[in-house]
Amino acid sequence: MSKLLRATVVAHMLLSEMIREGDVVVDATAGNGHDTLFLAKLVGIRGKVYAFDIQEEALRKTGSLLEENGCLAQVELIHDGHENIGKYVKEQVRCVMYNLGYLPGGDKSIITQGTTTISSLEQATHLLSKEGVISLMVYSGHPGGLSEAEEVENFVKSLTSPPWHVLKWQKINGTQRGPYLIVLYKRDK
Ligand SMILES: C[S@@+](CC[C@H](N)C(=O)[O-])C[C@H]1O[C@@H](n2cnc3c(N)ncnc32)[C@H](O)[C@@H]1O
Fold first, then answer.
1. Structural domain boundaries of the chain?
2. For the CA atoms of 169, 99, 28, 19, what is the dihedral angle to 10 degrees?
3. pLDDT tens for each residue of 82-113
4. CB of 148 closer than 6 A to ligand 1?
5. CA of 173 to the centre of ligand 1 (A)
6. Is the CB of 35 inside a 6 Å radius of any atom of ligand 1?
7. What ligand 1 atom has the least distance to the C-alpha of 106?
8. CATH class for domain 2-186?
9. pTM of the entire structure?
10. Phi and psi dihedrals of 157, rounded to 5?
């Protein structure tokens, strides 16, 4: 039960309910590859995952993890920023997943940035199919994290309902600097 207290676990649970075999999805921040592998298993060999990262190290780790698990075939690894998503993804997608911040175990000064995250998110809202979902793990505790979190919150609050449902999973007592989850769901009407 206590695993449900972790927003990353909740993100995986929600996306497992929404993503189907054969879907096309995007991992906007591949990092160490855990989320890419999770998505690759969900969509299967008939589906496709576009996985972005600006660091070669991250894509190398992601590629190895996918290979070890026999999931490399359904993933396109893209060494570019997610702000260029529109250059690579030309079809409608069921999900775009973000895990913001820095690469765990890597260089903590290389972080996602508000401006590029919002540019990517704007494009992602158009690429998303109806009944599609955008998930964002947001970290505000590291240097630069709080301003990015504020920019993300301002952007998602500006999305109109319908078609958007914007939800948040966050511990609200005690410290508020822990990671939290934002989910954008595009209703079909
Ligand atoms: C918290 S990590 C992602 C963790 C990953 N999802 C996993 O499962 O291990 C954030 C990643 O975002 C990457 N990143 C930073 N700016 C980016 C950008 N503009 N486009 C794509 N990736 C970016 C970093 O290099 C880092 O690897």
1. 2-186
2. -50
3. 999 999 999 999 999 999 999 999 999 999 99
4. no
5. 28
6. yes
7. 27
8. alpha beta
9. 0.97
10. -70, -20
